[in-house]
UniProtKB/TrEMBL annotation:
Residue intervals of the Ig-like domain: 16-86, 91-174
UniProt-recorded Gene Ontology molecular function terms: transmembrane signaling receptor activity
Gene: FCRLA
Entry-linked Gene3D superfamilies: Immunoglobulins
Signal peptide: none
Record keywords: Disulfide bond, Receptor, Signal
Pfam families associated with the record: Ig_2, Ig_3
One Gene Ontology CC term in the entry: external side of plasma membrane
Name used for this protein in its record: Fc receptor-like protein 5 isoform X1
Amino acid sequence: SDQWVILQTPLQPVFEGDTLTLRCHFRYNSHITRVVFYKDNKEIQSQADTELSVDRVSKSDEGSYKCTAWWLYSPYSGDSAEVRVSVRELPQTTLTLEPPFPEIFTRETVTLRCGVEGGSGGWRYLWYKDRQGAPVHQTDRSSGTGAGYTISAAALPHSGEYWCRAGRGANRLTHNYSNAVKIQVSGE
């Protein structure tokens, strides 16, 4: 492309609650002195910063974005192409048990699996026991990797109610809790 100014957007789609970061680049690495960002052809930000950040995006942030940049020692400006940003509702998470029996004996193995509607790319998972907001205590006998949480040698204290939650990005969990799954561990 012969476009001098490039608007860089994150992978699409963006999910509700994510942070949307747009960057305006000049192809030849010149020092940009001013950038104007537009959404649906309306100016939304004008400054020296080449980055536009929208926290906790919602459906209303969906639209066509572009930027105009001015650079050092030049009276001219350049426009990027328009880029469409789609914002999707957060998918549901579903917690299931493998094998699908809520009553198990001590020393048996069971895996809780957290499924995100529409695929698993880019999600991280947290696991909760007995109450929402209380992360499970991970030990050598129970650990969460990716979308699975495995209890490899069930003991009586593993009995209880479990939830999972999926999030995106480094810090923020943007997702609702899954359905609850109850596990009952019995002595043999």
